[in-house]
Amino acid sequence: MDDAVLAQLMLPPGLPGSGRLRYAAAMQLNRAGRLSPEALEVFRICSPRDGEDPMILLGQRGLARELPAPSASSPEQSLHALLDEVDVYLSGLAGPGTGELRAGLAMARGKPISLPKPQKSAVVDAHLQQALVQLRATHPSLALAIAAAAPLLKWVTYDAYPAELIGESFRTGHAFASLVGEEAPFRAEDFDIGLFLIAPHVLYRDHNHAAPELYAPLTGPHGWRFGPDASLVIKPAHEPVWNDPFAPHLTKVGPVPFLCLFGWTRDVMQPATVLPATDWPQLESLRITPTGTFE
Ligand SMILES: [Fe+2]
């Protein structure tokens, strides 16, 4: 069974005939013992519905985790594949920071991988799949690479903030994993690039840090502001945000989990600081709709 079958199974919704192609791939995988009859049934139901993503029904039936991982990939190959996909993605972005980050990726690519001891996260278990459903519609190979590499990564929470200042919903509602960095699979000094996931509707309160930072959001919409008590602006997926050193920023997650690539180009060991504001309670209860309006 090669990865072409898996890629066919993961065809994004909307392509004419894709429902039948996904079902054909599902039957092959089922015959090979790599897909359960229950998951196959979902692909059968969705086979006449090209525009419907079977991942949604799989998720509703608790079957999303049964999807097979690429069979030919070793952990090292999966991590290299993600590194390559991140590089391709960054190459398509305009704005500051992408050149520095791609130079860091190029430096890291030639070094041996240090496989971390994987560390699971309840936030990843609960929300990564939903984020990848959205990403697959436009960037299927990046979504597949993230899905394959995510179980190999060490997912952690950022613990430098005082708990009472950063708030409980962010403290327990986020996780990140480095791909290139001081203790990442691809080692690099004073540099950090990886994946960052925040649960729906969570407010990541105003904060800043010495490290210059690129956020490349892979899902959306979500809200941002760049100064305590400033007004919120809504941004879609794939619109990068660059934060200069110590520039204040805040993120309000919308209805889809916030999945992004983050990059810190230097001063990565300098801790981030929460910046007080008066309107956090209102922003915590605010809801952003799928079309980017406020409820
Ligand atoms: Fe930041």
Structure in a nutshell:
36% of the residues lie in helices and 18% in strands. It has 295 residues and is of the alpha+beta class. It has two domains: 3-66, no CATH class; 122-285, Jelly Rolls (Sandwich), CATH 2.60.120.10.
Total number of domains: 2
Low-confidence stretches: none
- H-E string: HHHHHHHHHHEEEEEEEEEEEH
Strand order across the largest sheet: 2-1-3-10-5-8
Percentage of residues in DSSP E strands: 15-25%
Q: On the 0-100 scale, what is the average pLDDT?
A: 92
What is the annotated CATH architecture of the largest domain? Sandwich
Small-molecule binders here are: fe (ii) ion
Distance between the termini: 47 Å
Per CATH, the class of the largest domain reads Mainly Beta
**In terms of structural class, how would the helical and strand content be classed?**
alpha+beta
- What is the CATH third-level topology name of the largest domain? Jelly Rolls
Percentage of residues in helical conformation = 25-40%
- Kindly report the name of the CATH homologous superfamily of the largest domain: Jelly Rolls
Q: How many DSSP-defined strands?
A: 11
- Sum up the overall morphology in one term: globular
Give an overview in words.
With 295 residues, the protein is α+β, with helices and mostly antiparallel strands. The protein has 2 domains: 3-66, no CATH class; 122-285, Sandwich (Jelly Rolls), CATH 2.60.120. 36% of the residues lie in helices and 18% in strands. It has helices at 3-9, 18-31, 37-46, 54-60, 75-91, 98-109, 122-136, 140-149, 163-166, 168-171, 280-285, and strands at residues 174-181, 186-187, 192-198, 203-208, 213-217, 222-225, 233-235, 241-243, 249-253, 258-264, 273-274. The strands form 2 sheets. Strands 2-1-3-10-5-8 form a 6-stranded mixed beta sheet. Strands 7-6-9-4-11 form a 5-stranded antiparallel beta sheet. A hairpin with a 7-residue loop joins β6 and β7. The longest helix is centred in the N-terminal third of the chain and has 17 residues, at 75-91. It is globular and about 55 Å long. Bound molecules: fe (ii) ion. Fe (ii) ion (FE2) is lined by residues 209, 213, 243, 249.
